[in-house]
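quick one before i forget lol
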Amino acid sequence: MERLPPGQILTQRFPILTYGEEPEVSREAWRFALSGLVARPLTLTYEELLALPQVELTRDFHCVTRWSRLDVAWKGVRVRDLLERAGPKEEAVAALVRSYGGYTTNLLLEDLLREDVILAHTLFGQPLPRERGGPVRLLVPHLYAWKSAKWVREIELLDHLELGFWERLGYHWRGDPWKEERFQEGPIPAASLRFRSRKEGP
């Protein structure tokens, strides 16, 4: 099976790309909220996150700047498990992810529900370092890495697609590396901005 998406270059390095200053958030101060269109809003501390069922996974990591690193080992908590606890409302179809430091990115709910989308706190067996998004980052391995928000603090479920930081600056609203969805060409399809039901899809 081909593992390198089109237009990508394989590297053994693991570059660090961050827009703006890196926020400094201690494990003691870190809080995560699952909010918006959920029946039971959820707030977690770092210790509470560690007390939940954990998953270890190894996934390839693809950056929109055209490098890919294979076999990156992570540990964390499935976002799907947290969503099950919170209970997304029927009208919830997308999410806006917020990070410490002000960064935002958008995702479809169906992408968040994949089994390998996690809140990651460990990288290669070590606590996630600050420059990699520690203490906790979102990992969405099937999309370009700008969707894997560092220093994550909140996922808000919405009934529409609200563009995040890079998406407002012209990056693709979804970011599938296998389709080379790097930049948005032309208008975003109207059906992607607001859905009447989850079943209709994008």
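fyi The chain is about 10% helix and 30% strand.
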